[in-house]
Design brief:
The two termini are 29 Å apart. The chain has 267 residues and is α+β, with helices and mostly antiparallel strands. The longest helix has 37 residues. Helix content is 43%, strand content 21%.
């Protein structure tokens, strides 16, 4: 599990409030995380917490540390997990830390430098989600194509109509383009090269491609697209998440503007 996001700070990671205080050979953690995916089913958590108060660091990115938490050992001993019910089939939770102890040896890297480690993990996470979006887009396209061949109205399969066929074809083209950018990012990552540009743009474009395919698929199915038995409405709801998480489209655009195009910081 990835313990980063908090209710009060969201994607403003540097404002997180969870603290880890060193006491002898242990750190004592207090605070809360939210939208921690699959926390109930994870053995370990990569946790980001503040080890130095924000007003005592020279650089705003300092003072945050990363820990590896044994969730099974900590459950009921300072760690509480509460599932969040959502509109889609996605296992996400609130996680609470109440004087939870973590062995000092579970500190990842250097104390106070954890934010940099998390950034590397975020690029990997964005490419992972991008791949999931591509899988969703392929599912929607295949589902729409098959239905368009089988559904007969006015004496012929509806896939013969350009009004049905073209949105599916356009969604397929968008998916292939987004997938190509994702592959570039993966190659860079595996070679140990900076991949922030591809990871961020790929995540945005892959999420857009999945949503475009979802729209085409539900439109192709018409009323049946909203019926449970066709499974389209479930997948439609689920893929909407990726316009928002693990990073919103607007934050991706601000990253491109500032870090890729060299424009002034927009927030």
């Amino acid at each position: 599990a990835f313990g980063v996001t908090e209710p009060t700070s969201g994607t403003d990671t540097l404002s997180l409030r969870t603290t880890a205080v060193r006491r002898g050979d242990r750190y004592v953690v207090n605070g809360q995380k939210i939208w921690t995916s699959r926390a109930e089913h994870s053995d370990l958590m990569l946790l980001l917490a503040r080890t130095t108060p924000r007003d005592q660091v020279k650089k705003k990115t300092d003072g945050l540390s990363t820990f590896l938490v044994d969730m099974k050992a900590a459950l009921g001993k300072g760690l509480t997990i509460r599932p969040i019910r959502t509109m889609m089939n996605h296992n996400s939770c609130e996680v609470f830390f109440d004087n939870m102890e973590v062995p000092a040896e579970n500190l990842v890297g250097v104390e106070g430098k954890g934010f940099r480690y998390i950034l590397d993990g975020m690029n990997a996470e964005r490419m992972l989600i991008s791949a999931e979006c591509i899988g969703d887009a392929k599912w929607f396209v295949n589902k729409a194509v098959e239905y368009s061949k089988q559904r007969v109205l006015f004496g012929h399969a509806i896939g013969k109509n350009q009004g049905v066929q073209f949105p599916i074809a356009k969604a397929y083209a968008a998916m292939r383009a987004a997938e190509a950018l994702l592959q570039q990012g993966l190659k860079k990552s595996e070679a140990g090269l900076p991949c922030g540009e591809e990871a961020n743009m790929g995540k945005m474009l892959c999420a857009d491609a999945a949503w475009m395919a979802a729209e085409a698929c539900i439109q192709t199915h018409g009323g049946f697209g909203f019926a449970e038995e066709y499974d389209v409405e479930r997948k439609y709801r689920e893929c909407r998440l990726y316009q928002v998480a693990p990073i919103s489209t607007n934050l991706v655009l601000s990253y491109i503007g500032e870090h890729v195009l060299g424009m002034p910081r927009s927030y």
